[in-house]
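User: Second chain of the day. Same drill as before.
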Amino acid sequence: LIASRIPYGDSILIRVTTVDGQLVEELRQDHLLSSAPSWSPSGDVLALIIDVDGLSQIGVWEPGVGGPRPVTAGLGEKRSPVWLSASIIAYIGIVDGVGDLIVVDIRTGESRQITQNQDLHRFVHRRPVQLGSRVGIEVPPAWVERLELSIPERVSPGETIVPKAALIDARGDTTRRHVDRIRLSSSDPTTVEPLADGSFVVVSEGVATIVASYGGWRADTVTVEARRLEKVSSDAVFVEDWTRGLSGNDWMVEGEPAPFVERTGGPAGGGMFFSNGDQNYTSGVFSRRAFDWSRGLTIETYGRTPFDGSPYQNWRVAFGLPANDTATIRETAAWIAPVQFLSDGLINRLVLRGVEFVAGRQERRLIASVAPNGSSWHKVTLQLDANGTASVFVDGTLVVRAQEFVTTTALPPTLHVWLGGSSVGTRIAFGPVQVYERALYEWPAATEVGRNASSVGQRPYPVVPSTIR
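Assistant: Same format as last time:
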């Protein structure tokens, strides 16, 4: 269909015809200065200026549905309707002689003023394009049609949450323009606390709603439930207590200076393993056995970390491929080391002991604050779930956890265990080791989680919808 305007007294007659000139409809557009009528991107809805009780309003007309219906209300002159998406129209609204850019959602009638006292007369949009037998306006890809929030719905105290908030444009594509304008918040910071970098930390058990908004309006929410992980009863498939020394049948040695074992003096009646790495090399051992992680994989061991603030002091446990595989080494690792934490973009110069979780070549990293007494033994658990979720526990308390942290398709079906680190100027040690071919800590049954779709709805938001003049 083709819409053309014809002067008609003090107003405009909109004539809608087929491409071969057959008349479909004649509509009256109020105000001689108004711009040409505007087809929607799909070419099946026409936007125009109409008269409603003596006031000019933006109206839309659909062939075969009846006359135009108003989608705006109130005083002030409306001019130059232009489609920004399938449901959003931008126009110039003039009040007291001053024009500003306004957008309106034709589905809900909700409008939003984009500029303030700019005295606009027109704005530039993308050129018309041919859509079959109709002429429409090309949809600006920068226009955000909706925001979608992706976040785990079952979380645990001590866990770090990294939400994924996607802006979807009018074409249905994900856009990264202006993602810095997304704002995230929590309905209950005592349960789930927002951090300055856009992530969240789960503080305590309870229920909280995570809200993602763009442009100052709420756009999407997800309700999450925080429960403590429960340890299940299971038998270890591999046990090492170091009382037999460093067995070549069980371990492959890596690094120089070489690691060594003392057969007594460790926790739980076992011996002690010393990684012994220096400022040049990290030393440690790889298990000769590879473990099936289809149900998850967990290693429990003990660590003694008498750090004194000097460099090259760390304690590390990892899952990965054997040392002779140069392509991929230590895909999944938990490190206890002195680390410098970042706070609001500035380096906190206090050196703290912490847990750093690294997903090998996948270049993912999380750091959590934990400061056990370095001269004492502490039980440390590294767990990799079958879905790629990674967790670290110290003395049974979750200190860092990230759901689907590891891309599981990048890993082989079996993984080796690696212990090691550097110990310059001190004696950093490992105690007895137990490996389980399953996730040893599980999340209890859910009670109240999910997307709060009934009270949210999806609304469009502009991201520089056009060039304004």
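The first helix runs from residue 453 to 456.

User: Great, on to the next one.
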